[in-house]
Amino acid sequence: MSTSTVYEQIDQIRKTWGNRLLILGHHYQDSSVVACCDAVGDSLELSRLAAASDAERIIFCGVRFMAETADILIRDEAGKSCGRSVWQPAPTAGCPMADMADGPTLEAAWEYLSKVATDCPLTPIVYVNSSAEVKAVCGKHGGSACTSGNGKRVVKHFLKQGHRILFAPDQHLCTNIMRELGYPPEAVAVWHRSLPNGGLTDEQIRKARLIAWDGCCPIHASYTIGDVAAARAANPGAELLIHPEAPAPVAALADHTGSTKGIIDVIARAEPDQTFIVGTEEHLVKRLAQNKEPKVVSLRPIICNDMGLTTPEQILAVLQTWNEACHVVVPDERVLDARACVERMLAL
Ligand code: 13P
Ligand code: SF4
């Protein structure tokens, strides 16, 4: 079937659904998928859209944790789905970073750290790139989710209250946030999940303001200082924009770190004669580079395979069959704690 026939069929079916259907897509989706979406955004925008929507069915073009977050937010006060549902066209699309933390291991780390450092409360903050199970543990212990767009605000909020933070799963995002908030490197201690007691001494734990889980995004964590040097040499005078999942020594070289939306906004406000080197997933960089002005080049082209799994054909298949394999359902017993975690973020 040709792509234009696929689009025509998607349009025909969505007309029969009207406002009862919402198709959301993350910025890292391929342009062929973006063309099918009612709204495209970063994790924070998409969480907000899911929360505000009263659509009966949400088709989420992205990875698992994003669809789970939408399911958490469309439930009613008692955690019931009330006939509303979330569907993921590519049900195997996950996030390798989200898989680097699980609920029981986070719970065990939180309990251990709380016993070692008793001078102040230990509050978990979990990056929205985490499973519903991990968000539920965070919510149960009074913690909050955050995204790359609001992470600084969320971390600052709890530090200002005198809390110590256990941040999971992205060590680079929280290290970059602490640097931008003006904390010295020793304020962050990295919790190595495969080592006894996280590989940390009691003294290191007590000295730290933030304990960073040792997870990372394999895409953004692969950027190096050498990539920056090569891109700057090839594009003299260009500004460097990097996603804050990049390692701290690389992110420190950027003119601006920001979520996908943050990067898009900087480019949208720029003068036509400016050039930007962009360090984030290639589907987005390619789309930004389509406009001739300002000029956009990739720090180093790198694709998130999971984000690339969704296709317009799969969206059409969901609309035609509503195959249960694509239905994303967070187990009821996790929903209320996970929702508390996400709603604390949305309220900040
Ligand atoms: P954003 O929060 O910028 O949308 O990023 C999500 C993500 O998966 C980054 O790798
Ligand atoms: Fe996960 Fe990284 Fe892919 Fe984002 S780009 S979905 S963090 S693996």
Short key terms for the protein model shown above:
single chain; 348 residues; alpha/beta; 15 helices; 14 strands; binds 1,3-dihydroxyacetonephosphate; binds iron/sulfur cluster
Short description:
The chain is α/β, with parallel strands linked by helices. It is built from 15 helices and 14 strands.
Tell me about this structure:
The protein has about 350 residues and is an alpha/beta fold. It has helices at about 5-15, 30-35, 45-50, 65-75, 105-115, 130-140, 150-160, 170-180, 200-205, 225-235, 250, 260-270, 280-290, 310-320, 330-345; strands at about 20-25, 40, 55-60, 85, 120-125, 145, 165-170, 190, 210-215, 240, 255, 275-280, 295-300, 325-330. Strand 12 (about 275-280), helix 13 and strand 13 (about 295-300) form a beta-alpha-beta unit. Helix 3 packs parallel to helix 4 (about 65-75) and helix 6 packs across helix 15 (about 330-345). It starts with a helix and ends with a helix. About 45% of the residues are buried. The model has no long low-confidence stretch (mean pLDDT about 95). 1,3-dihydroxyacetonephosphate (13P) binds near residues 43, 147, 245, 259 and 260. 1,3-dihydroxyacetonephosphate binds next to loops.
